[in-house]
Amino acid sequence: MGPTRLRFTMLGFILGVFVVYLKELPLSEGIRFAAPFYGAGIGLLLDGIILRLKQQKGSKE
Predict the structure, then answer these.
(1) Distance (Å, rounded) from C-alpha 41 to C-alpha 32?
(2) Residue 11 to residues 2, 33, 61: CA-CA distances in angstroms?
(3) 35 near 16, Cβ under 8 Å?
């Protein structure tokens, strides 16, 4: 796992943990407690998108 991939994963996980502690959000407990894992997955998806954009930009030059 590369450093950027790990960075985005951890940022997503930390944001998900932040969602767990927001009691005012109208979310069920299951979604609230799964939010760190959803955040980690979203972080991985964002890293994949950014990596593909960089590769496409590099191949066009």
Answers:
(1) 15
(2) 14, 16, 31
(3) yes
DSSP per-residue string spanning the chain: --HHHHHHHHHHHHHHHHHHT-TTS---HHHHHHHHHHHHHHHHHHHHHHHHHHHHHHHH-
Find out whether 39 and 16 touch, Cβ atoms under 8 Å: yes
Domain ranges across the chain: 3-59
Task: Give the mean pLDDT of 18-32.
Answer: 84
Residue whose C-alpha is closest to residue 9's, from 52, 45, 54 = 45
pLDDT in tens, 32-59: 889 899 999 999 999 889 888 888 887 7
Retrieve residue 51's tokens.
């990596």
